[in-house]
Structures are given as structure tokens and as C-alpha cells.
Amino acid sequence: MEDMMTDSLTPVSMECPPAWDDVRRMCGQLFMMGFDGTEVTPQIKELIEDFHLGTILLTAKNLRSAEQTTKLVLDLQTIARKAGHPVPLAIALDQENGGVNSLFDENCIRQFPSAMGVAATGSTKTAYEVAKATADELCSVGINWIMGPCLDVLTNVKNQPLGVRSSGDDAEEVSKFGTAYLKGFKDAGIASCGKHFPSYGNLEFLGSSLDVPVITESLEQLSLSALAPFRQAIRQGVDAMMVGGCAMSSAGVNAMHACLSEQVVDDLLRIKLGFDGVVISECLEMEALSHNIGVGGGTVMAFNAGCDLVLVCRSYNGQQEAINGLKVGLENGVITEARLRQSLRRMLEIKSNFTSWERALAPTGTAQLSNLQDSHTELSVKAYNSSITIVRDKDGLLPLSNLLDPDEEVLLLSPLLKPLPASAASQALASHGDAPRSSSSDSLLSGENVFQRFGKSLARQRDGRDLHASYTANGVRPMHENLINRANAVIVITADANRNLYQHGFTKHVAMICKLSQVAHKPEKPLVVVSVSSPYDFAMDSALGTYICTYDHTETALQALVNVLVGDLVPSGELPGSLRQNQKVHQSNQSNQSRQPWLAEAWDKARDADALDTLLHRLRQEPSTISTLILAGCTSNTFLLSHRMIDEYHFVVRNSTTKALLGFCATYFFPSTGTGVLGCVFVDPDRSKLSIGHSLHNRAVRSLLQIPGIKRLQLGSRLPSVFLGVPSSNSQERKRLRQWFSTIGWDNATSRPVCSMLLPGLATWSVPKNLLSSLQSAEIEFDLVYGLDHAGSIHDLISTSSRQGIMEIYQLALVDQTGSGIIRARRKNDEVVVGTVVIYNAASSWSQAIPALHLRTDDVIGGISSPVISPSVGEYSILLQGLVLMGIKQHQRQQANGVLLDYVDGDGNIDCLTAMGFTVLHSFDEISGDASTFELIT
């Protein structure tokens, strides 16, 4: 057997350098050990110096911050160097993300989703990016070996402790994501370790911690599923493989502990699967293994089975026992020196590939982490946002902001969970004063705080109120019942309810109470169930109508959940493996019930203009929509710009028999900024909820995305100035419209407030106190210019603005000699233009695109549009007020009754304009996004 193995493995045929003739030094390279404490302890120092320990496994108990970790790793390497180690230490870490992160630093180390959370994104590209980012961060602090990826296939999802540490229950999917992780680790320059061979995905647990979990599948069954990801990882060049401490009992193989079995390591992993890298044993101090065999005897058995590196990570006594066991095994001839040299060669090869003294003694540390922070933060948010999965929402409860008014209360019921070892809550406890690591009760309290912060964040973002209570195995108490009766909606959090059965019972009890509750016109109290770990809790329980999975309860995951609940994020995650098809069928059935395609045709002015005027009249007569006032003064010509600098594409859904328009959509493309704009979507009120708007939207957006040079998509147009975005004057209608657009692809998180403003009573208006003196102290001069002779200086300024429509409006104003002009602002004794604004009136050639100018025929309203102020100017508000003031004065001279500001940035300009007497006429949420990443949801 030994000859077969040696002949088939090229890397181990090399001779070891003379430095390794010392048997004690050689043996030290074949152990992986850990220690307690955040600084070098006398015990670990002794192991490195006297026994020449070659590999150290760090865990959360060793690590407080990136800076501390960098110092600790450097101290360990320095000790090894001074002790005469020929090669650096291998420093290993479990950093699986999600709930298994040994290193956490909220300032430097980013949190990424668990393996199943990443799989829920459906993107192997995201998996690669997450793996590389994780490895880049570890390399920065001096770590050179990552204990991952998990290659276990969850062939038995019930009573499964691995949970979200696995990518799922489909072998092909686990293989695919495992390959992406391996590539990410390799490209970052860190060694990898597949685990837990031959799979922890289908273990039978007998109850006691002294009982070894058992794999009962035959080798044939394992080969069909569980072994596939390990086989693929070997093909992709995985550097190491960790063999588990489970038992195997089936025809063809019988092993009390897999990592101590020659059948598993040498026969199955080495020969049948062809793995020639480093094999690591499970920790020999695990209770079942140490109780049955003992650490010393287990060490000899592990090496004889074919392991190259024996893991003993818990106690110094256990580590000494392992060392003595290997020494006695050599002395008694139970294990040969030749066998150990095979393992040494493999360890030296992995070290030569992934570390050097130059690298080990000069970690880049927090300086490099600072450079990575922005891109890694963006990746973390993107990954979590893409992973959140709505499994069911049968009653349309999401987002809650559509369902509840701000003054209504949401009750959050959460289990008492310990916080993740690497989390802000856990770190706060661990670093509190000089106290030792927190007690169990402290940890539970900290875990409760995680969900308390989640509840407060939800209340803040929906501008409402929250109630919060924890629950335990004691079930639904009178306190819970009282809170449920008081609340307007209930959210129940679960975490591995398949194993923590009290959570399952509690959730079903709450569901029953909600079903029996009667609140106003609602048949039952809204209930949302959220699994923050394994999605299998209620994936198949359709009695719970709204079910969401986050896969983690990290701070970033819970913030993504908040965004979903308030409607600022449209989740795109999918359940893993075998559950995905059920989810797609359910979503397809929902889609088929609510959406049907309509023929969306290109606009034809001769054919459709009169019909559009009729549709606009219908909409203005509809009292229930917020478009009634916005559309005042609109005609079919309002939406037809006919400008050489603006491309426009409009679409209709029509009854070809009666010629009536059932819906209309206007789109524009502004080449100056590469912006495609959705200007409006109208649907006949009598035909709402028939997918007409959806069909128009999809046709329009597809048309925009096909335009060469398009960079950005925007919902809301400053020209024509009708809908500047999603109307937001009415909170309920705003929620409904934001949700509608979010479900078809728009990201509400990118919205910003804009509005149009009106200054009435111009004949009696006077300049606010202190405004003139403020302008004088700013030493700004203003003038009014017309015509293309002034285009140069104005163009230099407006080119600093990337806003859609700015360039085109100024171009219109420059060429219009009748009703338009441009007010410029310059510093005294300086020709450089620092601010501009367009003024116009009803006689301008483009006033038809501003329907608010024509609100009442007996009023004369002047317009002010598109202020641009140099980024170098510090007195932004003063200069803006000055430009608007000059516009007002010009319109006063023309006997106007009022002034319209047709587009105002609502983020910070409203206050200074209301101080001048302006009031908000219409308010909107302008939404924009990158055209290259826009995903149209059909």
C-alpha cells in the first residue's frame, strides 16, 4: 500500500533538505496547534522554540482586531525565526464568513455572507470576489492558510449542525461554488483547505457528546453526491484536505473515526480520488475521539492512516500528549520515519508556495486593509443585498411600509441567541474593561441586543415605532400575547428551528394567534417569519404565508433585511439546491396570475395624439390618484420635445378597434450625459392591475438599454418637467408606486428627493431681510445674457454638472431669443462665471414642456430652472438665493403674478428657498442606476 501511494505521488518523491535530518524538528512540522490568549503565551513559545511547531491555528479567542492580529502573527513568526526555523510558520484561520469568522474588526475587516448566503446570490462571480476579498484581508494581517472552503453537501438537512456553512444540498452547486472559492483564495496567494472529508452533510447524531456522529451512506452513495465537490476541488488543485472525526458504517467501509482510518485517508482520498496534497486530521481533542482512543494513540493512528498534519488545538496538556505519542510511536516502530518524511515534503511544498521569511516578517497590516476598505464594503453590501430571499409572500405583506402607517407598531419576537463570535456585539463584550471573556448569560444578553438594534433600525427607516421581546423554550407567555394583540404587525425571527424545536413551536403558536386576530378590515394580523440561519426552517411550510431568509444574523445581513422590509431593496436571492425549483414554480404561478403581456407599440403622433389627450383628461378626473394635480395643464404635446439634442422614444398600449389608448410611456435619451430617462407611465384607471404598465415599462427600458453610449437609467425627467420621479406628495400612494417600480427592477436605495416650487403673489413680494447684505458681503455680481455669443463661459461651468437635462436646457435658453435668458454670477473684478440659472416664460419655445406654467389662464407665471454653481464656491446657499432673486426681479419687471422653480434638489436647498417665500408645488423621488447593471424583472 505504501509503495503504491509513493509511486503515484510526484511531489513526495523529492528528498528533504539536510536541515530536516533532525527528527524533532521534522516532527514539529507535522502538528497544527492552538493556544489561549491574545498575546504569545509561554506554552506556545515553548512549542515553537523547543519542539519546532510548524503550524498554528488561530481562533476568535486569540483575535481582537486587525492591528492586534498583525502584531500577534508577527510575534509568532519572529519567535520561529529566532529559534532557527528554516521556513516560516504556517498560520491558519477559519474565516468562512457568516457565522464562522475568527477575525472581526468593524473598522478594517469586512463581513461577508455565509457559504449558503453567497450561493443564494446565484453568482459564482460573487463567490470568487468574496473569497478573494476575504483572503486579501487575511494575507494583510499575516495569515497564510485559510481553513476553507466547506465542500459538504447537505444530503440530510434535518438535525444538521453545518447549516449555512455549506453551499446547499445539491452536489453540482456545492462543487461550482467551491471551485469559485478556491480560485479566489489562490489568486489572493493564500493556501486552501477543503473540508470536511468525506462530508458532514449526512451525519446521524446519537445524542451524547461522547458518541461519534456516523455516516451510514455506502461508498457508492457517497460517490454519487457527497464526494463530488471534493473530487472537483482536487481537480482544481486544492492545497489541503481536512478529514473529519466522524464514524463510517456501511458496506465497503467501517471506521470508528474517519481521520484515523487507512480506508478513508489512504484508500479513498489518496488512491481513489487521487489527492496528493496535505491531509489534516480533525482535532484529536474532540470529546468522542479523545475519550475512545486518547490523544497520544490517536496521533499515531492518524499518521499511519495517511494524515500529514495532526490538529491538537485546545489544551497544552493535550498537545504534550500528542507530541509524546508520536515520540513513543517512533521509538516502538509503530510509525516509521520514512512515513513522516512523506508528510514533511508535502508540508514544505505548501509553505514554499504560500509564504517566505520576507513575507512573514513584513505583513502589510492595517495600511493595506485601509486601501481595501471601500471596495470590500461595497462588495459586502452587494453580496448581502443579493442574498436575501423572499421564499413566500402570498398575501403581499412586503414591504411593510406599504402596509402600515408610521404611527402603527411592529412587534419583533426573537430567540435568545449568542452573538456570532466575530461580531460587534461579541467584540464589545470581550473588550469591556479588563474582564475575561463573557459568561453565557452575558452572551445571551448581547445576542438580544443584536435584534434590539435591528428593531430600532427598522423603526427608524420606516419612520415608525417598534416593540421587541425575546422568546425561549418556555413558549408563548401572556406577555407575548399582550404584545401581539397590541401590535399592528408581527415579525418572528428563527434560527435553525429544525434543531431548536422550541422555535418551531413558538412560531406556529404565534401564527395561530395572528390568524385569529381581527384588526379593522384586515382578516388577520400580518405575520412575517424570518430565518436568520438555515432556510430549511419553514421553507416547505406554506401555512406561513410570508417567509424570508437572510442566512446570517450579522449586522450587515440584518440591515439588508431592514431595507427589504421597508421597500428600499428588492431581494433577488434564491433558495439553495433542491428548494430552488419549488421557489421558482411558486413565483412563476404568482407571476402568471398577476401579469399578462400586452402589445406595446411605438408612438405615432398622427394616430395617437388625440387619444392621449383623452387619456390625460381621464386621469385628471380620477380623484384617487396623485397625478391629478401634476397633470394639470398637460397635453399630448407636453411630452414631445422635438429637440435635436434629445432623442425620444414613446410607446402605447391601445385598443386597435376603438383607437383608445389604454396606456402611454414616454422615454428620452440625453447624449450629453449618456442618460436614458423614463419620463412617465400612464394607465387608464379602469384597466389598472392588468399588467399594462408593466408591459409598457419593459418595452421602454429595453429600448433605452439598446442605445449605444447609454450609461445611466433614470426614473424622472427635468425636461419635460412633469414627473421628476415617483410622486411623493401622498405617503400611501408613494409607497405603492415605489414598491411597483422596485418589483420591476428599480433600486429605491438610489432615490433622492426633488420638487417643483412656486412663489405666488409676486406683486406684493419683497426681498427677505439680510439677503441683500449677505450678497453684498459675498461680493458677487449678476448679469442677464442672451444668445450664443455667451455660450463659451457658460459651457465651462455647466460641464461640471453631470445632471440629466442640464446641457439641453441651457442650449435651449441660448438659442431662444423670445422668452428665455441666462443669469450669470461672477465675483467682482473676475470674469470667471461661478453660477448660472435659466429664466423663461410662457413665450419660450419650450414652455409647453413645463405644464405648471399654464396652471391658470388668468395668471402670468415666470420660470426659473437648472441652477448650476461652481464646486469651488463655498457660499452655495447664498449664491443660489442670489441667482433666484435676480430671476424673480426679472419676472417682476415682466408683470408676472408668480414664479415657478421647475426642479429643486430636495437634499438641502428647500430651506433657503422657503425662506424666500417659495412653497412646494409637487415633490418626487428621483431614482437612478447604472445602465450596465440594471436587471429588468419580467
From TrEMBL:
UniProt key word Hydrolase: yes
TM ranges: none
UniProt biased composition (Polar residues): 579-596
Keyword Cell membrane annotated: no
Matching InterPro entries: Acyl_CoA_acyltransferase, GH, Glyco_hydro_3_C_sf, Glyco_hydro_3_N, Glyco_hydro_3_N_sf, NagZ_Beta-hexosaminidase
Keywords: Glycoprotein, Glycosidase, Hydrolase
Domain Glycoside hydrolase family 3 N-terminal, chain residue ranges per copy: 26-349
Superkingdom, taxonomy of origin: Eukaryota
Stretches the record annotates as Disordered: 577-596
Classification via SUPFAM superfamilies: (Trans)glycosidases (SSF51445), Acyl-CoA N-acyltransferases (Nat) (SSF55729)
Family assignment from sequence similarity: Belongs to the glycosyl hydrolase 3 family.
Record's protein name: Glycoside hydrolase family 3 N-terminal domain-containing protein
Species of provenance: Stereocaulon virgatum
